[in-house]
Amino acid sequence: MLRIHFGDADLARTRLAPAPDPLFEVAASMHRLQSSRGRWAYAGWYRTARRELREKGLERALRGVLLPMYPRAAYYPDFLTPATGVEGLEAGLEALLATPARRVEEEVGMLDRLIGAPGWAGRLAEHDVRQEFVGILRAYYGAVVVPQQERIQARIEAERAVRGRGLLHGGVEGMLAGLGPMLRWCPPVLEVAYPRQTQDRDLYLNGRGLTLVPSYFNWGEPVAFALRVAAGGATTGEIARAAGVSASAASRHATVLRDAGLITTTRNGPAVLHTLTPTGASVLRAAQARAGEESADAPG
Fold it and tell me: What domains, with CATH codes, occur in the chain?
């Protein structure tokens, strides 16, 4: 369970994006190709996508380049789905190209340790290689997502209409209350059910608000993708309460994490806000994945 805590400022800054994030849809659609789960709901798309990929000569690139980088597993590199992707395909691809080489190396290394990465993946730190990769992504998007745009937009508009009615009748809280069944509004907390999550987590928005991004290809559970920057955000006091230690001890722990490059710290009035770096987020995701595996292996 993920519990998202709202204040008045967060409710005022909560919005529903007008369209899916193209690069997240790329990732989610590849997960649909890798799984039979929910296949019935995408049967027509699946047949059409396989045909388009074959006719456009993209099957080899899909098997050898794309699927190894987007495994349907506990982890795939975060730089492949930049937050600016919600602004459109080109904005997302530009952000992907602009990713610092060091971050690409770190996240590809994480993929290799956790899942296994193809031998060429480390070269994505090179700008020219990443440009070729972006070309393949653009071709894939054109082959399997663009032909479904009318159907996708119709589904999204229908969903937005439902959420809009909730907003008209009950404000933002009315909209949040209608997000079930996997999201439950218990004022002032939005509870998000994650089937594979073994530990409860609390996220305090601290005035930053929330952007809800609809998805056509995601199936079976919500994803806290758009919260990536805020997900680790916490004041020293919040860290102390969550860990059950004193504020001074929490401050020392934060210093160690900051020196290790896992968090950044900024001052917000009298308080300081600690936020995960991309490396810190990757380490956290890996730890949660290991915890889930250990729980599954434990005797009942």
Answer: 22-150 (no CATH), 234-297 (1.10.10.10)
